[in-house]
Amino acid sequence: MSASANGGTTEKTYFEQQRELLIGDVATSLENVLQNINKLNRSLEGVIAVGNEFSQVEGLWSQFENVMSKQPEKEDSKDAKEGAADGSNQQ
After folding, report:
1. Is residue 79 part of a domain?
2. What is the rounded distance in angstroms from the CA atom of residue 18 to the CA atom of residue 7?
3. Organism's domain of life (predicted)?
4. Same-domain status, 48 and 62
5. Rg for the chain (alpha carbons), in Å?
6. Total domain count for the chain?
7. Span 3-29, pLDDT tens digits
8. pTM reported for the whole predicted model
9. Is the residue at 2 inside a domain?
């Protein structure tokens, strides 16, 4: 018979006490995990915000890189044409 049937007092068994302690520990741990995930989320948002501040600078450098990579090709082709013209004039 259970303790509640004997007189209304509810004594918990050792298993029930340990289960409640473990459930409390799990709840506390999950709360800590949630807090740490929120901190991580805020940190990631900060990193993304800083990264977004550099997007215009990155775009400018990309344009500069594209211009600089195209410039030598044009000069090389001009030099090749001039060299071919000079070579034909020298012969």
Report:
1. yes
2. 24
3. Eukaryota
4. no
5. 38
6. 2
7. 455 555 688 999 999 999 999 999 999
8. 0.51
9. no
